[in-house]
Amino acid sequence: DADVTQTPRNRITKTGKRIMLECSQTKGHDRMYWYRQDPGLGLRLIYYSFDVKDINKGEISDGYSVSRQAQAKFSLSLESAIPNQTALYFCATSDSKRGGSNTEAFFGQGTRLTVV
Amino acid sequence: AQRVTQPEKLLSVFKGAPVELKCNYSYSGSPELFWYVQYSRQRLQLLLRHISRESIKGFTADLNKGETSFHLKKPFAQEEDSAMYYCASGGNNRLAFGKGNQVVVIP
Q: In 3D, which of A1, A12, A3 has the Cα closest to residue A111?
């Protein structure tokens, strides 16, 4: 089945370390997103990309960067991790050519990141 | 900017009781509204969307443009409905999520 895959699933890292979260998809979708999920705050958009050459900041992009290496791959980096970046991170995709809806999102399984 | 409001954080109901999760949105255009569900230790998945006007797992949601609401309802809760529910508004080519409702169905 076409899917959205995130690696790693769990990661513990130390403050100040650089870490990369990876997302790949086999859905053939052009749009990809990174969200973080925190208790009581819901899902907040970090970055999104409409194609390989189109990267946009979301509502909480500070402290993060992204790379769209190919249509199927979208990586999220924390250049210098800090404890308040401890969260569950979700990658999602959507298809701009999908009839009737171009914002329905399909999610990966999430990456639980802990910064100590 | 889009904004989605889900007022209750935690909702506990007895099995067989009705469930209603409130969602209000603010968007100047014509939004697409969705409900996503996240079962324990699973990814978010689409539950239903206003375009299709369907009932999924006994849940329905009606878009009320006058009240800018998209409340989720189910007449008889089941234990398997225990999950986190997110209302989302699509517009400007991206989704904005509410803070979510944790639903606990008590046997």
A: A12
